[in-house]
Amino acid sequence: MRVAYPDDSKFTHEQRVQFGRVPINLTRMLLHCPVPMVQSFLDFALSFRAGNLEPKIRELVILRIATLRGSSYELKHHLPAAKTAGWSDQEISVITSAQPFLHD
Predict the structure, then answer these.
(1) Coil, strand, or helix at residue 48?
(2) Cβ(12)–Cβ(21) under 8 Å?
């Protein structure tokens, strides 16, 4: 079963405000949920970006969790950010492998 994107021309004012915060398809799909739930999700997601983690460490965490959870969507959208943050293709390959090699 495939869930259709909601029609943004029919968004309420509150939905438009939340979509405007992060105007991507993920947010559009989240707007099938109640607005307070979407707002809480976006608050959390945006705080992670604005938090104390250096971008390189943040992208490491995102790539590793996406790998462990099998989230190809998340990986697709964060591979460019990981490269921008300073990870090489070889390092990204290790981070996104099922069993990364860890040094003693």
Answers:
(1) helix
(2) no
